[in-house]
Amino acid sequence: MPFHPFEMERVMSKHEKEVEHNLSESGVHPLTLSELLDMAPGTLEELLHTEIGYAHANGIPELRENIARIYDSATPENVLVTIGAAEANFNAVQALLEPGDEVVIMLPSYLQVWGIAKNRGCAVKTFHLREDLNWAPDLAELESVTTKDTKLIAVCNPNNPTGRILTEVEMDQIVAVAAKVGAWILADEVYRGANRVSDEENPSFYGRYERVIAVNSMSKAYGLPGLRIGWAVGMVAAIDDIWARHEYTTISAALLSSKLAALALSPGIRPQLLRRTREFIRSGYATLERWLRDHGDTFHLHPPDAAAIAFVRYDIPLGSTEFAERLRREKSVLIVPGDHFGLDRFVRISFGLPEDYLVLALDRIHDLILQLKGGSQWSPRPQPVQRS
């Protein structure tokens, strides 16, 4: 069985640290350690006396308690701490699916679960968010591709790359489709709380249906990707099955990272981090929106509800991978081509960044656009939306 590499992460792994301007990340600008510790005076002394041993394999109690508070009716026993959301997704698929099982995956989306399922030997189907409906899910398509053999439906909410937040009606309809055939829902919710249009936190799939695994991490909504702390929340038996796979992969998260994550998710500090994230998102989006508007009909965007990313359709006579590669080589700016989400003539641009850094990066993209427009091949024309 051929191995399917994670194409987007391969490119980012190779190039994100070498470019001068990285607009490929999907979280906001990270905090410094001092910024986090300043929110809780006296914590540094406690950390300095921490013995650097193993943490609890399933997550230190304080961290699991703080995670459980985020979900209605959850207890620490419903929580498994992992190395980022990436490990949570990987081990959830290993626990819930066998080779040959049928999986239905939302597109466009972060394609990790798609690749894990393919490499597991599963039969992968897709349903789509529709650009012509402001990235609303095609629920009729979901129902048509879901069968009695479907074992899992994977969703990303708020969505990566579009930033679309599912309405509660849409969430309930997805649950109804899953419940009809007894399928699991694997809900990637790493942008939950990173809202652009509201201070209200969008709801989780957890608690809406028994067969839900909700995945989240410290990386996106909290601005702490370097902690490499994620988690899965679900019914106890399922979490125990994922935990058993966790013992084969990473055993436990780092103790210092776990303590810092517990601090960040404490009731007094978590709201401050979400407020900081929303400030970066709203300020950065205003900058990006002005820049897009200045380019007339070159770009089209349905404004994201959440997350520090914009999924932008463009009218330039280059495929998205070639456009992103030229931008990297010629201007030292990294963005994510729409090809990595199954849609050409789109790019994903990060904007949750300091103003001066973002403006300089956008200026370099502008320079490449001017070069392309000056070429004889430039002939603006509407491009059909493509779906995989």
Structural commentary:
The chain has 388 residues and is α/β, with parallel strands linked by helices. It has 2 domains: 129 residues, Aspartate Aminotransferase, domain 1 (Alpha-Beta Complex), CATH 3.90.1150; 219 residues, Aspartate Aminotransferase, domain 2, CATH 3.40.640.10. Helices cover 39% and strands 16% of the residues. The chain is built from 13 helices and 14 strands. Strands 2-9-8-7-6-3-4-5 form an 8-stranded mixed beta sheet, with helices on both faces. A 4-stranded antiparallel beta sheet has the order 10-11-14-13. A two-stranded parallel sheet has the order 1-12. Strand 6, helix 8 and strand 7 form a beta-alpha-beta unit. Helix 4 runs parallel beside helix 10. It is globular. The protein starts with 6 loop residues before the first helix and ends in a 14-residue tail after the last helix. The relative contact order is 0.17. The C terminus is likely disordered.
Per CATH, the class of the largest domain reads Alpha Beta
| DSSP strand tally | 14
Largest sheet: 8 strands, mixed
Q: What's the mean pLDDT score?
A: 95
Sheet with the most strands: spatial strand order:
2-9-8-7-6-3-4-5
Task: Provide the low-confidence segments as ranges.
Answer: 376-388
End-to-end separation in angstroms reads: 22 Å
Instruction: Could you tell me the CATH topology label of the largest domain.
Output: Aspartate Aminotransferase, domain 2
Secondary structural class: alpha/beta
H/E topology pattern: HEHHHEHEHEEHEHEEEHHHEEHEEEH
Return the domain count.
Answer: 2
Q: What is the count of helical runs?
A: 13
Helix content: 25-40%
